[in-house]
C-alpha cells in the first residue's frame, strides 16, 4: 500500500475524501439520506439546473477533482434528460430507509435504459462520505451518462438557456411546451396542405375513370384527411421533443383519438354519399321508371346505412375507450365472465335487439317503403323516414306519426302503393230516381277529359248505380290517378263538378215526396151534437 494512502486512512475515512472531493460542501437542502430523497432531490435540482446542488447527487470519484464542479453539472443535465425521456420513476417502489435488507442495503436499481449494447441499469449506491453514508448515483451509472445521452438526448438541449428548462406546468419544461406548440401548428398546416394535394391529385386521377365511386370517396375525405395527417405528424414530431413518458403517452393518446374520430367521420360521410349516389344511378338507369323498385332500394339503403353507421360508431367508441388501461381491465374481466355477462346483456337488451332485427327484417321483406301511402292507427299518410327503431308517417295535414318499427311487422296496416303508386278513387252521390244517369256519366267523362288539370291518368273512369233506398239512389263515380295524393284531389274535384251539374238539372238532386189520402167520417148517429156543430163551422 502506498504511503500516502496510509496517511489518508489515519486522518479519516476514505469515503469522506474520495466522494466528490472537488465539489464545495453540499448545501443544507441537499438530502441524500435515503434512495427516495436522493432521487427526488436530484430531479428537482437537475430540472432547475442548480449547479450547487445537482452534482452532489452523483458519484464523481472517477473524475479529477478540478473538473468535478463543471463536469458534474453537465452530467446532471444529461442524466435528467435521459431519465425524463426513457423512465418515469415510481417513488412508491423506491426505498425510504437509509439502508434496506440484503442487497438493497447498499444498492438500489431505479430502472433500466435501453441502449444499442443492451439495457443499462440506473443505480443508486450507498457510499461513505463526511458525516456518514449517503445515497448517490453510482460511478458506473455516471460513467454511462454520455453514452446514454448520445442515444436519447440532443446536443441542442445543452445550448439553450436555463430558463427553458423550468417546469411552468405539469411535467413539461418550457422548451417542450414551445416545441409542442410549434409541432401542433406545423402539423395542422402540413395536414391542410397534404389534404389539398391529395384531393387535387385524386381529382385528376378520378377524371380518368368513368366510375363515380372515386369522386364520392374524395368528396367524403374532404375535411377528414387533414385531421388524419395532422394526428400522425403530431405523434411523430413529439418524439423529437424528448417528452417524459406520461406526456408522450398523452400526446399519442390524443393523436390516436383524433385519427380514429376522423376515420369514423370519413366512413360515415362516405356511406351517406354512396347511398345517395346509388339512388341517383338507379334513378337514371332504365330501371328508374319502376317506382316500386326505386322505393325498395331507397328503403334498403336507408336501413342498412343506419345499421352500418351504428356499427362504425360502436367500433370507434370501443377503440377510443380501449386506449385507457382501466377500460381494458374491465374488458378483460368481462371476457373472463363472458357467459354470465352475455346472458345478462342479452336479457337486458332483448327489446333493443328485437327492434334492431325488426329493422333489418323490414329492409329485406319490405312490407312498406319510404314514400309508400299507408293507413295505420286510422291515419292516412306517407312513409317519410325509417330508422332502426321507429317509422315516421307524414299525415295528410302535415302531422308526424311516430310508430315503433315492430308494429309494422306485428299488426296489419294498409299499404296503398305496395305494388304500384297508381290507385283508384271513388266519389259517391245521392240523386233523385228521375235523374238521367247516362247524362251524368257523360258529364263525368267531360270533367275528366277537360277539367281534371292533369290529375286523371286517363286509364279508368265510370259511373254506376250502386245502391237504392226508399227515397234516393246512390251513384258511384270511379276514377284513377297516378298516386294517392292526386286521387284525393281528383275525387274532390269530381264530387264538386257533379254536384254543380245536378243542381242545374230539373230532377238532379233528391226530392222529398208525400201523398195525401182523405179519411172517411164516422156515421152521423155516432157523432155528437158538439162534433156536428164543429164540422158545420169548419165547412
Automatic annotation (TrEMBL):
Keywords from the UniProt entry: Membrane, Transmembrane, Transmembrane helix
Please tell me one Gene Ontology term that the record gives under cellular component.
membrane
Bilayer topology reads:
Multi-pass membrane protein
Pfam families in the cross-refs:
MS_channel_2nd
On whether Cytoplasm is a keyword of this UniProt record, the answer is no
* InterPro entries according to UniProt: LSM_dom_sf, MscS_beta-dom_sf, MscS_channel_2nd, MscS_channel_TM-2
TM spans, by residue? Answer: 169-190, 223-241, 253-271, 303-324
Principal location: membrane
Membrane found in the keyword field:
yes
The protein's matches in SUPFAM superfamilies, at most eight in alphabetical order, are given as:
Mechanosensitive channel protein MscS (YggB), transmembrane region (SSF82861), Sm-like ribonucleoproteins (SSF50182)
The GO terms this record gives for MF are: mechanosensitive monoatomic ion channel activity
- Cell compartment(s), UniProt: Membrane
Which residues does the UniProt record annotate as the domain Mechanosensitive ion channel MscS? 352-418
Q: Which family does it belong to?
A: Belongs to the MscS (TC 1.A.23) family.
Q: What name does UniProt use for this protein? A: Mechanosensitive ion channel
Species this protein is from: Corallococcus exiguus
Amino acid at each position: 500500500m502506498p504511503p500516502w494512502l496510509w496517511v489518508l486512512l489515519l486522518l479519516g475515512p476514505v469515503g469522506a475524501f474520495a466522494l466528490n472531493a472537488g465539489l464545495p460542501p453540499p448545501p443544507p437542502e441537499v438530502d441524500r439520506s435515503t434512495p427516495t430523497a436522493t432521487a427526488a432531490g436530484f430531479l428537482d435540482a437537475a430540472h432547475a439546473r442548480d449547479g450547487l446542488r445537482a452534482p452532489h447527487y452523483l458519484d464523481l470519484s472517477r473524475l479529477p477533482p478540478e473538473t468535478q464542479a463543471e463536469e458534474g453539472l453537465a452530467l446532471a443535465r444529461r442524466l435528467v434528460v435521459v431519465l425524463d425521456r426513457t423512465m418515469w420513476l415510481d417513488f412508491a417502489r423506491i426505498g425510504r430507509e437509509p439502508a434496506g435488507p440484503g442487497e438493497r442495503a447498499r444498492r438500489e436499481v431505479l430502472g433500466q435504459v435501453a441502449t444499442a449494447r443492451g439495457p443499462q441499469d440506473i443505480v443508486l449506491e450507498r457510499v461513505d462520505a463526511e458525516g456518514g453514508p449517503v445515497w448517490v448515483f453510482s460511478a458506473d451509472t455516471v460513467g454511462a451518462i454520455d453514452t446514454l445521452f448520445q442515444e436519447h438526448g440532443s446536443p441542442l438541449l445543452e445550448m439553450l438557456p436555463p430558463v427553458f428548462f423550468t417546469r411552468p406546468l405539469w411535467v413539461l419544461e418550457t422548451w417542450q411546451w414551445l416545441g409542442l406548440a410549434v409541432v401542433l401548428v406545423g402539423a395542422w398546416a402540413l395536414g391542410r396542405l397534404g389534404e389539398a394535394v391529395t384531393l387535387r391529385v385524386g381529382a385528376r386521377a378520378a377524371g380518368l375513370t368513368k366510375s363515380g365511386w372515386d369522386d364520392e370517396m374524395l368528396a367524403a375525405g374532404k375535411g377528414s384527411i387533414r385531421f388524419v395527417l395532422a394526428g400522425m405528424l403530431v405523434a411523430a414530431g413529439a418524439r423529437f421533443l424528448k417528452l417524459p413518458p406520461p406526456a408522450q403517452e398523452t400526446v399519442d393518446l390524443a393523436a390516436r383519438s383524433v385519427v380514429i374520430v376522423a376515420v369514423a367521420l370519413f366512413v360515415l360521410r362516405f356511406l351517406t354519399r354512396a347511398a345517395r349516389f346509388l339512388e341517383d344511378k338507379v334513378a337514371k338507369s332504365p330501371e328508374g321508371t319502376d317506382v316500386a323498385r326505386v322505393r325498395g332500394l331507397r328503403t334498403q339503403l336507408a336501413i342498412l346505412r343506419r345499421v352500418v353507421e351504428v356499427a362504425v360508431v360502436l367500433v370507434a367508441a370501443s377503440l377510443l375507450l380501449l386506449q385507457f388501461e382501466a377500460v381494458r381491465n374491465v374488458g378483460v374481466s368481462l371476457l373472463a365472465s363472458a357467459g354470465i355477462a352475455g346472458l345478462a346483456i342479452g336479457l337486458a337488451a332483448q327489446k333493443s335487439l328485437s327492434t334492431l332485427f325488426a329493422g333489418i327484417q323490414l329492409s329485406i321483406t319490405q312490407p312498406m317503403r319510404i314514400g309508400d301511402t299507408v293507413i295505420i292507427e286510422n291515419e292516412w299518410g306517407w312513409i317519410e323516414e325509417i330508422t332502426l327503431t321507429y317509422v315516421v308517417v307524414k299525415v295528410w295535414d302535415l302531422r308526424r306519426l311516430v310508430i315503433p318499427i315492430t308494429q309494422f311487422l306485428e299488426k296489419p296496416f294498409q299499404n296503398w302503393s305496395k305494388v304500384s303508386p297508381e290507385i283508384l278513387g271513388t266519389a259517391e252521390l245521392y240523386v233523385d230516381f228521375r235523374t238521367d244517369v247516362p247524362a251524368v256519366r257523360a258529364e263525368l267523362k267531360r270533367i275528366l277529359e277537360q277539367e281534371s288539370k292533369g290529375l286523371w291518368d286517363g286509364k279508368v273512369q265510370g259511373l254506376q248505380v250502386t245502391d237504392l233506398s226508399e227515397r234516393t239512389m246512390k251513384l258511384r263515380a270511379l276514377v284513377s290517378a297516378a298516386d294517392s295524393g292526386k286521387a284525393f284531389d281528383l275525387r274532390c274535384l269530381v264530387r264538386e263538378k257533379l254536384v254543380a251539374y245536378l243542381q242545374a238539372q230539373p230532377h238532379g238532386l233528391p226530392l222529398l215526396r208525400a201523398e195525401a189520402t182523405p179519411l172517411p167520417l164516422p156515421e152521423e148517429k155516432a157523432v155528437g151534437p158538439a162534433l156536428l156543430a164543429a164540422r158545420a163551422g169548419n165547412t
